[in-house]
Amino acid sequence: MPLQQTPRLLSIWTSRLPNTAKSNTNGSLSGLSMAVKDVFWTTELPTTAASKMLRDFHPEEDAECVSLARAAGACLIGKTNCDEFGMGSSNRFSHFGPVLHPLSSDRLAGGSSGGSAAAVALNQSSFALSTDTGGSTRLPASYCGVVGLKPSYGLISRYGLIPYAESLDCVGIMAKSVHTVNRVFDVLSQYDEKDPTSESTELRKSAREAAQSVRQSTDTWRIGLPEELFTSKPSDALSEVLDTLIRKGATDGKRVELYQVSLPTTTLALNAYYVIASAEASSSLARYDGMRYGYRSESGSIHDTREEGFGEEVKRRITLGNLVLSADSLDNYYLNAQRARTEIVNDFNGLFRMPNARTATDAVPDGIDVLIHPTAVSGPPLVDSHDAADYAQDLLTTPASLAGLPALNVPIGVDSQGFPQGVSVVGQWGCEQCVFGVAKELETANASVGGV
Questions:
Q1: Rounded Cα distance, 410 and 408, in Å
Q2: Residues identified as active-site
Q3: What is the CATH number of the domain that holds 44?
Q4: Domain encompassing residue 407
Q5: Which residues are CB-contacts of 219 (< 8 A; sequence separation ≥ 6)?
Q6: Which residues does UniProt mark as catalytic (predicted)?
Q7: pTM for this structure?
Q8: Number of structural domains found in the chain
Q9: H or E element in which residue 334 lies
Q10: pLDDT digits (tens, 9 = 90+) for 187-200
Q11: Where are the beta strands (DSSP E) in 245-398?
């Protein structure tokens, strides 16, 4: 089913430049056009977070990731629609209206970065910047059939990103190929003193060197299939791709070995994620009172300003966040969620044969290089489905988010209704090159068997 450009294209953008903004034409991203999710500061265009609250906000500088991409030659073409403040898995919660799926007006592109995914899928841009808090890059990438990266937490600067949940928010990258995503990542992955969560140059180097040492000392790619993250048997398309890799080996000459592994505490991830993310959102969004900037109600009261300025989903999550941080609920909900998060990190660290440089955890000598699992539990959300079903879409993506690990969606075939489906490649912290390596092998094998 080929992607078609239609009048629905208008739902992708919140604003566009009349002419492509010029950048340095001699950089490593020279000739690439860039769409930017409307949660990043840009000087030429407003940054609204798809919210009435910020509909007239005009930043005075570009976000660091936007600035780096433009300095490397990328040309900004516009800002993409998203769920308000990045809160949603479907892209139905936007002040500008929902982003519909490129293949069907009955389906949504997925969220919260649906506009970025649709822009890439419809060849409106060479790549797009997005965000990923609990799956907001990987889910729409899977639904729309594009490559989408959530990098290791702290590798790409979040300076100039309007926050949702600060211990989880990551800058995401989407493109049609793993190669392009890798190119953009190499430009953006730099230490930034303006971002207090940016990890040091030394820690990045330590993670890279550890991964390189493991890869150079082995003749295999060891891939783990976590049983808890396969809600059903692997799709026929994924099975065929994996069979091809096992039979033929990787293009670098290494053998490919599959192992069934277990991540028992990942069953706690979805609940822990919503508790932690909502708690952090209630804190992050407390600044929007209409006094210094942003929307202000006619009455001028803070209550009326927030009631009118925020959409219903944002208000729901703020209410939940306030509840779990209250004195009566703090231990039962928030602290338990943080304990679960620690257990999830430990589960992941117990699988990889690369050490976790960020948590100073030793490697497992007979461990795996990467994990592979489906990105989404089902196809693109229906426009008229009940929004309660949206929350379950994050089931498979939240574990890597809570652990701060790199995760990359790769399109592999289509589902029974003809919609794209993807698999996630998850690696140890700071080991993006291992993730890219396996993802490229999947991409090549998928093409060799006639996959979409």
A1: 6
A2: 37, 112, 136
A3: 3.90.1300.10
A4: 1-452
A5: 253, 254, 255
A6: 37 (charge relay system), 112 (charge relay system), 136 (acyl-ester intermediate)
A7: 0.96
A8: 1
A9: none
A10: 999 999 999 999 99
A11: 255-261, 370-374
